[in-house]
Design a protein that fits this description.
The protein is an alpha+beta fold and 264 residues long. The chain is 43% helix and 21% strand. The strands form four sheets. Strands 3-2-6-5-4-10-11 form a seven-stranded mixed β-sheet, sandwiched between helices. Strands 1-7 form a two-stranded antiparallel ribbon. Strands 8-9 form a two-stranded antiparallel ribbon. Helix 1 runs antiparallel to helix 8.
Length: 264
């Protein structure tokens, strides 16, 4: 029994150590005095960028060959269809967590996505930001967004991360997570309106990027069988552990009952 317990604890430790994605911190606050550099190379505080409005935040990096591009493409499409007035009802921020990216790169990325919209969009409503004084890492930690830097044998740097939109209230409260690449304008609208009132809402669309990963060579999403297999193995192990514990208790109770009958 002790060996089984040790195995389960070890397995859980390994899974947790390798887990990447979003550790939700609904209801907590992000520091509004963090400073970020915008696409024009100017430094402002998060509070200044938000301008007293609920804010839609995505965490990406601009050289990403994986999920960032389709996520930002969908974000541009969603914002252009959102039944709210940008720069009046809400702000949008895309924050790069890669420390080596530059304002010209952020500016080019922003220009691409603003031009992809199917209507005139107030450009000041959506900024692409770079870290200053480690602000991106601090912000990511505050909202529970975890990522991992990987370097290939050829020296190519990449980042493993999830896709999510985080809704922040004007006071800096984390009010909603919208996980995945594609978001419905109605869901985002409700999240923004609730955030304006400081209301915390439930998370939806949690499973897509856990089961699928982006294949940059094939430019498509492939089934991440390793993750699913690990989850299945963990689930089976836990169920088996619970069954053993209950079976052990049952055998112990039967043994005590038999001994009690003999004593009588």
């Amino acid at each position: 029994m002790k060996k089984i317990v040790m195995f389960v604890l070890l397995f859980l430790t390994v899974i947790q150590a390798e887990s990447l994605g979003v550790n939700e911190k609904l209801g907590e606050y992000v520091p509004l005095d963090l400073t970020f550099i915008n696409e024009d190379g100017k430094s402002k505080t998060l509070k200044e960028y938000m301008d007293g409005k609920p804010t839609i935040v995505s965490l990406n990096y601009f050289r990403c060959a994986g999920i960032c591009t389709p996520q930002l493409q969908d974000m541009a499409k969603m914002l252009s269809r959102l039944d709210l007035a940008e720069n009046t009802d809400y702000k949008a921020l895309t924050i790069s967590f890669a420390q080596d990216e530059t304002p010209p790169l952020a500016k080019a990325k922003r220009k691409t996505h603003l031009e992809s919209m199917n209507r005139p969009y107030v450009q000041d409503a959506w900024h692409f930001l770079l870290s200053e004084n480690n602000s991106s890492a601090i912000f990511a930690d505050k909202v529970g967004f975890t990522y991992k830097k990987v370097v290939s044998k050829a020296g190519v740097v990449d980042w493993i991360h999830a896709a999510t939109l985080i809704i922040i209230s004007p006071e800096g409260k984390i009010t909603r997570y919208l996980n995945g690449i594609e978001q419905l304008p109605f869901d985002v609208k409700m999240a923004v309106m609730e955030s304006a009132q400081g209301k915390v809402g439930p998370t939806i669309a949690k499973t897509l990027l856990y089961c699928f990963t982006y294949d940059p060579k094939g430019k498509t999403y492939v089934f991440a069988w390793e993750k699913v297999a690990a989850t299945v193995i963990l689930t089976i192990t836990i169920i088996f552990f619970i069954w053993l514990v209950k079976a052990g208790r049952r055998d112990q109770e039967e043994h005590e009952n038999q001994r009690r009958d003999l004593d009588e």
